[in-house]
């Protein structure tokens, strides 16, 4: 596993898994061009490079051009659209160009939604395959609900414009019994202060949890009455699938 960070990762990994971290703390924009050379021997020992987010495809393009390695990429959602929603216009245009480049270099492309599969099938009919995002149903499973005085609404995701959490706060503010509702957001981002201020101005009980261990997520689903995802753009969000796997009612925006 070639990582942009994780230098201090302490958890025990299986014997056949090796984590190669950004040990010199280079900025990720520079580091993605250097990974292959820092770990030259390890790169040579790999047969296939699996790119989990298409935006991390530059090292894969380099290993294909220089070492002739095969690469498999995931196309989860429209990355340029998300950048555009967040008013990152230059980034949006650059991503459009870069995504076409990585898709052209890829030996195989995994689409996680039927919409994206059909979209890419026209251009890459021999490369594309559909593999939906999965859920560990042993970890995320239905549970017995406990009646509580307050209704807990849960949202998991970056605190950015794309995820649209402010709409959730404004919607709850319209409810007469809003004092009996609590919103829990799990995530971090540039809109954290704005969301806290919006909740304060609307007299909404809001808790923001920056980051938690993946293995602890089920306990937050257990404590939720509704999972709400009011996003402006998505792919096949794992948090939504996990909430559904737990049997929680899900309230989502009407987007693909």
Structure characterization notes:
This protein is of the alpha/beta class. 35% of the residues lie in helices and 16% in strands. It has helices spanning 28-31, 35-38, 40-45, 58-67, 79-85, 89-105, 114-121, 165-173, 192-201, 217-222, 238-245; strands at residues 48-51, 70-75, 108-111, 128-130, 151-156, 181-186, 205-209, 226-229, 250-252. Strand 6 (181-186), helix 9 (192-201) and strand 7 form a beta-alpha-beta unit. The longest helix is centred in the middle third of the chain and has 17 residues, at 89-105. It is globular and about 65 Å long.
Largest sheet: number of strands, sense, barrel closure = 5 strands, parallel
Compressed to H and E, one letter per element, the order equals: HHHEHEHHEHEEHEHEHEHE
Strand content: 15-25%
User: Which structural class should the secondary elements be placed in?
Assistant: alpha/beta
Q: Give the strand line-up of the largest sheet.
A: 7-6-5-8-9
Taking pLDDT < 50 over at least 5 consecutive residues as the criterion, the unreliable ranges are none
Rg value: 21 Å
Basic shape: globular
Helical percentage: 25-40%
Number of strands: 9
Distance between the termini: 31 Å
Compute the average pLDDT: 92
């Amino acid at each position: 596993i070639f990582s942009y960070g994780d230098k201090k990762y302490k958890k025990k990994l299986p014997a056949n898994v090796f984590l190669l971290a950004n040990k010199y703390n280079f900025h990720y924009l520079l580091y993605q061009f250097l990974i292959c050379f820092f770990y030259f021997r390890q790169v040579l020992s790999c047969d296939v490079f699996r790119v989990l987010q298409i935006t991390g495809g530059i090292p894969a393009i380099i290993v294909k051009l220089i070492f002739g390695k095969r690469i498999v990429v995931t196309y989860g959602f429209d990355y340029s659209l998300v950048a555009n929603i967040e008013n990152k216009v230059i980034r949006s245009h650059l991503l459009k160009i870069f995504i076409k480049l990585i898709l052209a270099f890829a030996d195989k492309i995994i689409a996680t939604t039927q919409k994206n599969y059909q979209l890419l099938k026209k251009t890459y009919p021999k490369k594309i395959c559909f593999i939906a995002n999965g859920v560990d149903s042993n970890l995320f499973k239905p549970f017995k609900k406990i009646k509580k005085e307050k209704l807990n609404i849960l949202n998991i995701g970056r605190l950015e414009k794309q995820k649209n959490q402010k709409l959730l706060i404004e919607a709850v503010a319209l409810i007469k019994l809003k004092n009996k509702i609590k919103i829990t957001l799990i995530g971090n981002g540039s809109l954290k202060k704005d969301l806290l201020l919006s909740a304060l101005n609307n007299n909404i009980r809001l808790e923001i949890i920056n980051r938690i261990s993946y293995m602890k997520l089920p306990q937050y689903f257990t404590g939720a009455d509704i999972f709400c995802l009011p996003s402006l753009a998505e792919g096949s969000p794992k948090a939504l699938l996990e909430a559904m796997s737990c049997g929680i009612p899900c309230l989502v925006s009407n987007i693909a």
